[in-house]
Amino acid sequence: MGAGDIRAVAEGNNIVALCDVDEERAGKTFEKFPQAKRFKDFRKMLDTMEKGIFETCRLLCEWIWDGAIGNVHTVHAGCTAVNSAVSRLAEIKERPPVPKTLEWDLWLGPARQRPYHPAYLPSKWRGWVPFGKGTIGDWVCHVVDPVFWALDLGAPETIQAEVKDWNPKTQGDAYPTGEIVTFEFPAKGKRGPVTLKWFSGTEKIPRPADLEPERHDIGTGAAVMGDKGTITYGSHGASGVRLIPPYRAGWKL
Questions:
Q1: Domain layout of the chain by residue ranges
Q2: Is the pLDDT of residue 1 over 90?
Q3: Rounded distance, CA 213 to CA 201, Å?
Q4: Can you give the pLDDT at residue 249?
Q5: Is 91 buried (19+), middle (13-18) or exposed (0-12) by CB count in 10 A?
Q6: pLDDT single digits (tens) 151-207
Q7: Is residue 236 classed as helix, strand or coil in its secondary structure?
Q8: What is the helix (H) or strand (E) element at residue 72, kind and residue range?
Q9: Contact 253/62 with Cβ under 8 angstroms?
Q10: What is d(CA 48, CA 39) in angstroms, rounded to the nearest whole number?
Q11: What is the Cα–Cα distance from 237 to 141, expressed in whole angstroms?
Q12: What is the pLDDT of residues 8-61, one digit of tens each?
């Protein structure tokens, strides 16, 4: 997961340090970022690199807490990944032999018994309802965590899920190829109610009205909208966090 996480945040960010107890396992990643300092002990990395890392998530919180975009009322968050097995439903009717190296019953664990098929594993399980949690279960923690902290969201009052071109009777074992999930959070403390919409796969995050024309649409990340402006950021710790407009009343990045 370490290499995958780094790939997800590498664009637009300066990778200043890498840490792994196994130099051989992490070798290819080390080679991609020769300028990054290398560590084996993450505690030593944090002590050494304290002033050079972990700023974006805290910056998002500080902007929101200090009123940089006013009262936050809406968050659009999502991921472009399509963790869906809909296209493989017909395929699993085949009955290939179980590989000699695999204990299929043990792999299934507590899930309902079903014939083996390579469409389920090793990493394809995410798109199947009996085994994974689709795109939202795989990605929401990486995208929503910063704003969840900043707004102290807690539990929602209501949740509504919308999907297209998906029939639970015939496709219920596979997650949809895209969904929009709306969470309504009640007012809390000094903030008002917040609507958070999650967009996955084929359902894309709407382009913020105040996003500059030269900027790309938000793919994987979020737009946090207040009555005085917008903050956008990417996944894994609010990478690339920025204010829209970027220069206003002394607030800038």
A1: 1-54, 55-84+134-253, 86-127
A2: no
A3: 23
A4: 47
A5: exposed
A6: 999 999 999 999 988 999 999 999 999 999 999 999 999 999 999 999 999 999 999
A7: coil
A8: strand 72-79
A9: no
A10: 10
A11: 10
A12: 778 777 899 999 999 898 999 999 999 999 999 999 998 998 777 788 898 999
Q: In this structure, what token pair is assigned to residue 171? A: 């496709």
Q: Which two tokens stand for residue 112?
A: 């309902």
Range 173-197 burial, b when 16+ CB lie within 10 A, else e: bbbbbbbbbebebeeeeebeebebb
Q: Quick one: average pLDDT of 90-111?
A: 95
Kindly state the tokens that stand for 75: 């968050």
User: Which residue reads 């869906």 in tokens?
Assistant: 84
**The token pair that represents 145 in the structure block:** 């965590």
CA distance 237 to 220: 12
Task: Tell me which amino acid residue 211 is.
Answer: L
Report the b/e string of 38-73 with b at 16+ CB within 10 A: ebeeeeebeeebeeeeeebbebbbebbeeebbeebe
Look-up of token digits 């939202």:
136
Segment (H or E) for 5:
helix 2-10
Contact call for residues 193 and 152 (beta carbons, < 8 A): no
Q: Which amino acid is at 134?
A: G
Helix (H, G, I), strand (E, B) or coil at 188: strand
The architecture in CATH of the region 55-84+134-253 reads 2-Layer Sandwich (3.30)
